[in-house]
Amino acid sequence: MKSPATFTRRRALKTLFCSSASLSLNLGSSSILGAAEGGALDLLMIGDFGTSGDAQKGVAAAMKSFCQGSGIRPESILLLGDNFYSAAKDGFSTESVRWKNTFEDVYPATDFPGPCWAVLGNHDYHDNPGGEKVQLDYAKNAGTRWKMPGKWYRFDLGPAASPMATVIALDSNLPKVSGGRDKILGKPRGSLAEREAKQQHEWLVAELQSKRAPFTLVMAHHPLYSNGSHGDTKTLVEQWGPLFQEHQVHAYLCGHDHDLQHLELEGLFTSFVLSGGGGARTRKLGSDRKVPYGADVHGFTHLRVARDKLVFTHFDASAKPLHRFTKRTDGAFEVT
Question: What is the predicted pLDDT for the residue at 280?
Fold first, then answer.
């Protein structure tokens, strides 16, 4: 089904539901997933992947298989946080073996030669004290595909003179979202400092007010809305939601819940795409709110960026397509 080309300002939480008939359409359509034409760009996205385990490697193998089978050369990978789970046995630093067995060897340049744009998740702050600084420092290494120029940053996709999409990367680890004290150990948990959160918010407002490409994507770790086990993130709904609506952000990309989702909320311009099946153990969805798609499976998401549309496709760990939808510049979406 299609959403209206124009939207009301009402921000109700009632979601738009796409019928099972729509979801059963042929997801293998070569007209959508054949080799990109007309300057379209292909990207992959994964979140909650950094376990170094078999499930992570299985999803990476599916990504490789999909690209080879479809004749796609991905422009980049979007890494949606929780890039490294658990304490590194050798101490987490830019020289840690975790960079080899969780990133470099799992997503080798031979298969994924483009930049890997990363944001920070809660485990990136909590599991290795100072781990967020290590990830920022690793991005400074000459020749690395690991891209994290700051805790928040922007980049454009497409030709410099006429980009097709603006990507705004944020740190969703606000003090009220990811801070406080550990419930078991009682120790303070890492997050953005209050001053950093304020700086990021001011920067976000300025970027949304600035000149942008025809499509605007925002990526961060925690969801605004989710049918997963964590549910909605009230602080982000309150602080970021009105900005996304006012400035017509086309899609918000995140992880945190270990599943794949696509949410549309009545009256909201933004599509919410959750890709948290990159390797960590999946969790059952915890809400019966009707949405176009949601499944507790390992997998990844493919995004094709064209001049007139964005096409999102969720895949499972065998590279089987599960759900696809198209987003237009006017905000209309269609499950295809």
Answer: 98
Residues 6+ away with beta carbon under 8 Å from 311: 32, 303, 304, 324, 325, 326, 327, 336
> Within 13 Å of residue 190, how many CA atoms lie on the same side as its CB?
15
Q: Can you name the residues that pair with 325 across neighbouring β-strands?
A: 312, 335
The span from the CA of 56 to the CA of 280, in Å, is 7
Using CA atoms, how far apart are residues 262 and 191, in angstroms rounded to an integer? 27
Cα gap 205→196, rounded to integer Å: 14
Structure tokens at 82: 């929780």
Boundaries of every domain in the chain: 20-335
Structure tokens at 278: 């990159």
Q: Order the strands of the 293-295 sheet from edge to edge.
A: 153-157, 165-169, 215-219, 251-254, 271-275, 260-263, 293-295
**Strands (DSSP E) found in 182-231:** 215-219
Q: Closest Cα partner for 177 from 66, 254, 73, 258? A: 254
Residues in the chain: 336
Torsion of CA 209, 214, 220, 222, to 10 degrees: 90
Please tell me the CATH code under which domain 20-335 is placed. Answer: 3.60.21.10
Listed as ranges, residues in the chain with pLDDT below 70 are 1-38
Query: What is the rounded CA–CA span in Å between residue 47 and residue 254?
Result: 7
Report the distance separating Cα 106 and Cα 109, nearest Å. Answer: 10
Cα atoms in the 13 Å half-sphere on the side-chain side of 145 = 22
Residue 219 neighbours by CB distance under 10 Å: 25
Alpha-carbon distance 282 to 259, whole Å?
6
> Are 291 and 23 contacting, i.e. CB atoms less than 8 angstroms apart?
no
- CA 222 vs. chain centroid, Å, equals 9
**pLDDT, position 22:** 36
What is residue 32's predicted lDDT score, i.e. its pLDDT? 45
Predicted local confidence at residue 185, as pLDDT? 76
Q: How far apart are CA 317 and CA 282, in angstroms?
A: 12
Round to whole Å and give the CA distance between 112 and 77.
Answer: 8
192, 152 in Cβ contact below 8 A? no
